Amino acid sequence: MDMENKGSRMPGKTTKALGLAKRSATFPFTSLKMADAKGRISLESSVAKQPVQVEERGEGEWTIRLVGAVPIKETWFIKNPEASRRVHKGLRQAQNREFAIDPRKGQDSSWLNDVDEENV
Prior knowledge:
By secondary structure, the protein is α+β, with helices and mostly antiparallel strands. Helix content is about 20%, strand content about 15%.
């Protein structure tokens, strides 16, 4: 059997579960690849020019994951579980149409009629 051209299928794995939204639900994996003289291996062209994370899992074992970059100014949110919890709670409430009462409700807003819009 030619191991380089024959791939195995991963039954039951969806592209969403694998984080590969634009790929077919089943795809071949080549079971054997050879590193070149500089220790490099080639991945499929579908992952070309995408950032990947390479994690050494043990001697002779690595995990390669597609990743997305997070701007430095936004990393505080990822590092702050309380902020994340509050945002997710707010999104859940909005999805369930659980809105706060408008604090201006019942207030007299007749003064808005006298506002000069050109000077605002």
